[in-house]
DNA sequence: CCAATAGTGTCTATTAGACAGTATGCT
DNA sequence: AGCATACTGTCTAATAGACACTATTGG
């Protein structure tokens, strides 16, 4: 930095600019069986008392939004995020002046994925907030549920992002343990796309190119043992296209 | 709103929350020939005095970010945005605490597209700011140019978004007049992807399904007259895949 | 043996990409 | 005529999607 620039910054007095509170909201996804679930908190206060809402919180002065999202994810789930192979990415920013009736809050929404074995959802311990978060099936909530603020719009945006992204990446594997079978992966796709139309045979052929076969096999009670894979390439080429409903 | 809720909001006193200045930055693209250009302003003050920067400004108290982006686009270009068929969409939010050394400024970056006839770039009148914006070829700036703040990262994100989006949508047509020829459209693709590998014949075949033939033809000095199209479907199916470089 | 799952084989219709060929209009 | 551009035709290799088939396990 030049001496001139240092002098400038030292003497800099900011004009009055409109200021806002900066928050993050989280759409946390996890899969059981062939169902896509998201984490919700039940609001204890007005506005939107007793309605479902997405977990979230304010961005601290020394954090960027992504760091705040990771912190809130850990605080609101109480989980070991390493064990759950958590993935967090920025989704979009919601900035309508009236989205929170109390004051101006701009929210940077984030998409978070947690790994499960496909059988049980992670236990959501009560974090710093009074009420623990709960898992609910995404497609049910979008069909029926009332959500606080603009959280329905955020949830829909997150689902759209995830549904699109797994067409051309192996992001779906972030919803599974590091090692998984093709059947597990196919169930994740079916959960996210809310469909049962994925042919197991064709799915195998299209995916194996991007996967690494561990050489080991695993058995799930019934049926032939299944090969265990890890992700080799993060990108699918050609992409797997979502079937028309 | 219930009486109880009204009472709550009336008596609501916000706690102290960290506040930030909220800004928008704009990546404004337009095409001439087979070159993708973006609009830049030359900074007159520290920090980053004399460096190139993206146009932008602060979000006003009663605006959301998208509205602010439209307003700044009009102010900084001085153009009739209707005539240029402007398209603006949110790109991503940049929130590193130190991205502006003067104070905390969180920027919601936006992608803007302006239509040209493919021959000349719109004249950028000097707006409310002292210096007029200028057009520069995007790939040159990314290769050589120094940009202020984190604007190189924003520019790269915008280019990536546009390059990806035109694979499966006709967003590229927003860089052309409402009516255009397939040759014009192909030049836009080549400009955005920085390639010359698009076969004109195959391009015709793949695009015509999503386009509406006006029935009219137009001639450009040399060669056979070209059919004039408008956009019929915003989505391309199947997508047009970017050739490997 | 039966049921359920894993994974491969096969067939057909469609498509991409390369490139040839024809038509049109300007100079 | 000569040339540049617009667009269609054709060929080949690759692919998707449907579905049959075999193999392997537990009950």
Automatic annotation (TrEMBL), chains A, B:
<protein>
    <submittedName>
        <fullName>NUDIX hydrolase</fullName>
    </submittedName>
</protein>
<dbReference type="InterPro" id="IPR015797">
    <property type="entry name" value="NUDIX_hydrolase-like_dom_sf"/>
</dbReference>
<keyword id="KW-0378">Hydrolase</keyword>
<dbReference type="Pfam" id="PF00293">
    <property type="entry name" value="NUDIX"/>
</dbReference>
<dbReference type="InterPro" id="IPR054105">
    <property type="entry name" value="WHD_NrtR"/>
</dbReference>
<dbReference type="InterPro" id="IPR020084">
    <property type="entry name" value="NUDIX_hydrolase_CS"/>
</dbReference>
<dbReference type="Pfam" id="PF21906">
    <property type="entry name" value="WHD_NrtR"/>
</dbReference>
<dbReference type="InterPro" id="IPR036388">
    <property type="entry name" value="WH-like_DNA-bd_sf"/>
</dbReference>
<dbReference type="GO" id="GO:0016787">
    <property type="term" value="F:hydrolase activity"/>
</dbReference>
<feature type="domain" description="Nudix hydrolase">
    <location>
        <begin position="19"/>
        <end position="159"/>
    </location>
</feature>
<dbReference type="InterPro" id="IPR000086">
    <property type="entry name" value="NUDIX_hydrolase_dom"/>
</dbReference>
<dbReference type="InterPro" id="IPR036390">
    <property type="entry name" value="WH_DNA-bd_sf"/>
</dbReference>
């Amino acid at each position: 930095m030049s001496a001139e620039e240092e002098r400038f910054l030292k003497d800099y007095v900011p004009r009055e600019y409109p200021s806002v509170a900066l928050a993050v909201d989280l759409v946390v996804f996890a899969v059981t069986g062939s169902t896509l679930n998201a984490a919700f908190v039940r609001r204890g206060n007005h506005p939107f008392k007793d309605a479902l809402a997405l977990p979230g919180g304010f961005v601290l002065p020394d954090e960027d939004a992504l760091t705040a999202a990771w912190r809130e994810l850990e605080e609101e789930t109480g989980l070991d995020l390493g064990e759950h192979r958590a993935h967090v990415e920025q989704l979009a920013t919601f900035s309508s002046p009236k989205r929170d009736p109390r004051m101006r809050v701009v929210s940077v929404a984030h998409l978070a994925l947690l790994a499960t074995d496909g059988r049980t959802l992670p236990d959501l311990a009560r974090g710093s907030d009074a009420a623990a978060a709960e898992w609910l099936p995404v497609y049910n909530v979008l069909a029926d549920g009332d959500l606080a603020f603009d959280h329905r719009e955020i949830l829909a945006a997150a689902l759209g992002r995830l549904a699109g992204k797994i067409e051309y990446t192996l992001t779906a594997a972030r919803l599974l343990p590091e090692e998984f079978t093709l059947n597990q992966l196919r169930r994740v796709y079916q959960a996210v796309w809310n469909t049962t139309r994925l042919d197991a045979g064709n799915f195998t052929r299209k995916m194996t190119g991007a996967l690494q076969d561990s050489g080991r096999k695993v058995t799930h009670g019934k049926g032939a043992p299944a090969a265990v894979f890890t992700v080799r390439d993060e990108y699918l080429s050609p992409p797997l296209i979502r079937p028309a409903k």
